[in-house]
Amino acid sequence: MALYKIITAEPTVADTAFSSLTGSATNTIVTSVVCTDAATPVVQLLIQKSGGSALPLAKSTLVAGIPKELLTTSFALQSGDILYTKSTTTNSDFIISYAEDTVVSAGGVSGVTITTDTGAGAKAIDTAGSADFTLIGATGVGITNSGATITATAVPGEIDHDSLSNFLAAEHVDWAGSSAGTIHASNYIENVSTTLSAGTVDATTYGITSDGGANDIVLPEATTSVAGLLGAAKWDEIVANTAKAANVSTNLSATANGTSLTVESSDGNNVALPAATNTAWGIMSDDHVVALEANTAKTSFSNLTGEVTSSGAATTIAGNIVDEANLKVSNAPTNGYFLSAQSGNSGGLTWAASGGGVSVSTQAVNRLVACSASSDVLDGEANLTFNGSTLSVVGAVTATGSISGNGSSLKVGKLDTQAGAASAAGEYGLNAEIYTDHSTTVVTGSFYALDSAAWVASNATTLTTASKGMIGMATSTGSGTGVVIRGICYVLNDPGGAIGDVVYLSTAVGRLTTTPVSGTTGFVSRVMGYKIGTNLVFLNPSQDWIVLS
Questions:
Q1: Could you give the number of structural domains in the chain?
Q2: For labelling, which of 4, 243, 335, 513 has a CA lying 20 to 30 Å from the CA of 106?
C-alpha cells in the first residue's frame, strides 16, 4: 500500500545545498515540491545519486509571497539518493510531497483479466499460476508491444479497398486503363470561350488579362538574347533609322586659321581639327612650321676646347684661368682694394678700399694681448705672459669650473681655505677636496663612509666601515655629484659645542658631535675635525680611532 507523506524544509545557510529527503528501499516517489518566500530569491532543487555528485534538477526565481511549484513531473528516489533544496536567502519554505510503496512479494498477483471487443465471452481470465495470454492480429491489423504496452496498428499493404464497408464502385477508378470510368456532366465545363484584353501596358512590358482585372500574363520586351515584344524605345530607333537618307553625296571644304583647320560639309556637320600639342595629336599650325624652319636652319657646333671646354651639355672652366679681366665688376680696380659683394651694382661685385685694421699697444716679447677700451686697439698685458712653455700670471686666478692638466704638478705659493659662500646643508668652502664614486641615494649634509659598492651612513656604535672607513659629507641627494672628504663643510645637523671644539664621529647615524663617545663597550671614538661656526665644520677625519672596552 502507498504511504503519502509531506515534509517541510528551510535551508539555514544562503546559497548552500540543504539535504531535505533521502530515498529509502520502499520506492520513494516525489510528486510535488512547492516553495514560498517573502522576498524574490533564486531557489533550486538538486539530486544526488547514491555515491555521485549533486546535479541540478529544477531552478526558478520566486515572486514575493506567491507559492511556486518547482516540479513538472513526478520522479523516483532510489535507495540512498538525496534530494537537496537551495535558496539565495534563509527564509524560503519548501513543502515536499512524496509517496512510499511497500515492496510487493513474489506470487502476490491473484489474477489477470484481458477484455477484448470479440470472442465467445466478454473477458479472458486466468487466475492460476502464471497469467499467459496471446494477442493475434488479422489481415490489415498488426499487434506490437514495448514492455507492458501492447499496441494494435494498421498494416496498409494488407487492406483491400474494395472489401471496406460502405464501399462504392465509383469511388475507386483505375484511370490508367482505357474507358475506366465516366465523369458526370455536372462535374465539368466543356469548350468554354475566354475573352482576353489588354492589361497594364508600359514602355517595356505588355500585360494580358482574361477578366479585365489584374494581369494574367506579362509579355516582356525582347533583348539581344531572348525573344519578346518590340518596346517603345526600339520602335523609335526603327522609325529614326527608316527616316535616314541612304548613300547621299556631300561636298567638303576647308577653312584654316592660325590655330585650327575646320572641315565643312555641304549638308552635314562641320568638324574643327585642332593644332597638335606636345601631349596630343593634331594638325601642324603656322607656328609649328616657323619653328621647324628655324631649327632646320640652325648650325651645329662641336665641343669647346681651350680655357673653357665642353662635352655635350656640360661646360668646364680650366684652373687658373679666371682673372680680373674675366670678372664682371661694377668699377675699375685700384691696387690694394679688395673685392666686395654689392648686390645692387652691376655684376654684384665692387672694388672697395680696406678698413684701418687693428693695432696693438704696449707691445713686448711674450706678452699676451687683451681687448682695450678703444675700438680696433689691443693691449699687450704685462701681467700675462707665455714664453712657449710657461704661462705666467701676476695676480689672482679665478675659475668657476675645473682646472685640469696632463698629469703635471700644480704649484701654488699659498692655498687659501675659507668658508666662502657655504651657507646651506651640503655646501662647502674654498679648496675643499671632493671624491666622486658610485651612485647612491643620500641625505644632503649628512655623513657617509665609502663601501665596496656604495656609500653607507656613518655610525660610531661598532667598528665597521661606517666608523673606520673614508668618511665624507654628501653635497646633494646623489653621491655621484661628489662627497667632501676634506675641507670646510656646512653640515645638516650642528654638532653642538663652541667654535674651536674638536668634532667626533657620532653614534647617531650620519652625524658629528663635539661630545666624545663613552661608556659603552665597542663604541668607536674617532676625531673628524673642528667646529669653526654654526653648522660649519673643518672636516679632516683622523686615520686613527679608539674602540671602547
A1: 3
A2: 4
pLDDT per residue of the chain (549 residues) written in tens, 0 to 9? 566 778 887 888 888 888 888 887 667 888 899 999 999 999 999 898 877 888 888 999 999 999 999 888 888 888 888 888 999 999 899 998 888 764 444 444 444 555 554 554 445 555 444 455 667 777 777 788 776 677 888 887 777 766 676 666 666 677 777 777 777 777 777 777 777 888 788 888 888 887 666 777 888 888 888 888 888 888 998 888 888 767 777 888 888 877 778 888 877 788 888 888 888 888 888 888 888 888 888 776 678 887 788 887 788 888 777 777 778 888 888 887 888 888 888 888 898 887 666 777 777 777 777 777 666 678 778 788 888 778 888 877 777 766 776 666 677 667 778 888 899 999 999 889 999 988 899 999 999 999 988 999 999 999 999 999 999 999 999 999 999 999 999 999 999 999 999 999 999 999 999 999 988 999 999 999 999 999 999 999 999 999 999
171 exposure class (CB count in 10 Å sphere: 0-12, 13-18, 19+):
exposed
Q: In whole angstroms, give the CA distance from residue 129 to residue 132.
A: 9
- CA–CA distance, 466 with 47 (Å, rounded to integer): 74
Give dist(CA 357, CA 350) in Å, integer: 20
Residue 507 covered by a domain: yes
State the Cα–Cα distance between residues 507 and 300, nearest whole angstrom: 104
Rounded CA-CA distance 503/541 in Å is 9
525 contacts 517 by C-beta, under 8 angstroms: yes
Its domain, for residue 464, covers 433-547
Q: Which of 100, 132, 161 is the last residue of a domain?
A: 100
Q: Is the dihedral of CA 272, 277, 279, 282 positive or negative?
A: positive
- Determine what percent of the chain falls in helix, strand and coil, rounding each to the nearest 5: 10, 35, 55
CATH value at residue 76: 2.60.120.220
Interatomic CA distance for residues 245 and 318, integer angstroms: 79
Query: How many Å apart are CA 19 and CA 46, to the nearest integer?
Result: 9
Dihedral (CA of 194, 200, 202, 207) sign: negative
Q: Among all chains, which residue has been given the C-alpha cell 545545498? A: 17
SS in 3 state form for 73-129? CCEEECCCCEEEEEECCCCCEEEEEEEECCCCCCCCCCCEEEECCCCCCCEEEECCC
Q: Report if residue 23 sits inside a domain.
A: yes
d(CA 96, CA 99): 10
Same domain, 445 and 529: yes
| Residues with Cβ within 8 Å of residue 161, at least 6 apart in sequence | 167, 172
Q: Is the C-alpha dihedral spanning 90, 92, 93, 95 positive or negative? A: negative
Q: Which long-range contacts (CB under 8 A, 24 or more apart) does 508-516 make?
A: 509/457, 509/458, 509/459, 510/443, 510/446, 510/447, 510/448, 510/457, 510/458, 510/459, 511/446, 511/447, 511/458, 512/447, 512/537
449: number of CA atoms within 13 Å, CB side? 20
**What is the model's pTM?**
0.35
